[in-house]
Design a protein that fits this description.
- This protein is an alpha+beta fold and 210 residues long.
- It has helices at 2-12, 31-46, 50-66, 68-75, 81-89, 96-107, 114-128, 144-156, 193-209; strands at residues 131-138, 165-172, 180-184, 187-190.
- It contains nine helices and four strands, in the order H-H-H-H-H-H-H-E-H-E-E-E-H.
- Strand 1 (131-138), helix 8 (144-156) and strand 2 (165-172) form a beta-alpha-beta unit.
- Helix 3 runs antiparallel to helix 7 and helix 5 packs antiparallel against helix 6.
- It is globular and about 55 Å long.
Length: 210
């Protein structure tokens, strides 16, 4: 069942994982967070500072997790540029690249994307190390065999390439009703019942309105 569904999804994917145009980054990420994380990754790669930047970001993420109010303040449009720079400086010692990067975020009013950018950078680092993280969302907890089937379908089916390790994590979300949603890199394969119902509802609505 899982393999059949994923094979269908494979045929529908326009882009392949890790098959984007030649780039210095291991995977192509999109969206605001993806673009900023990619720019940071490329800048760090040029000076062999990938690990140093990763350490900086992990430290900042930990501080934000311990103080949710801090994250709210960083994202506040009421805080002026100088105050934001002082706040970033207070988050601990950082490499030159990370420091300049956050100044850019401040200049572009993108500090509210900090969390998402950190997550995207982690994805790039995992891909750089040949690690692919796959999130499988289901209405109920899946058995180990089901998760293995998903992993085998993605790897043996060619959806995931150039990997050393594939980590599959199962998240439970009852609102999808049934089926599953598989996410890896910047790609989503939606095989949920809720998605099918939404498509059916749209089809019926369009038919009635004609």
């Amino acid at each position: 069942m899982f393999r059949q569904s994923l094979n269908v999804a494979k045929a529908q994917l326009v882009r392949g994982y890790a098959t984007a145009a030649p780039s210095k980054v291991p995977i192509a990420l999109f969206g605001i967070d993806g673009k900023y994380a990619t720019a940071l990754f490329q800048a760090a790669a040029k000076t062999n500072a990938l690990a140093a930047v990763e350490s900086d970001l992990n430290n900042i993420e930990q501080r934000l997790s311990k103080n949710t109010r801090l994250e709210e303040v960083l994202s506040s449009p009421l805080l002026n540029k100088t105050a934001k720079e002082e706040l970033i400086d207070s988050l601990g010692k950082k490499s030159e690249i990370t420091t300049h990067f956050f100044k850019t975020l401040i200049e572009n009013n993108r500090l509210n994307e900090t969390r998402s950018i950190i997550t995207a950078y982690k994805s790039l680092m995992e891909a750089e190390r040949g690690i692919v993280s796959v999130t499988v969302t289901s209405a109920n907890r899946l058995a180990g065999k089901d998760l293995k089937d998903v992993k085998d379908s993605l790897t043996k089916g060619g959806l995931i390439k150039n990997y050393k390790e594939v980590n599959v994590v199962n998240k439970v979300n009852p609102s999808i009703l049934g089926g599953m949603v598989v996410e890896f890199g910047d790609y989503t394969i939606d095989m949920s019942v809720s998605s099918r119902l939404a498509k059916l509802e749209k089809l019926l609505t369009d038919s009635i309105s004609v």
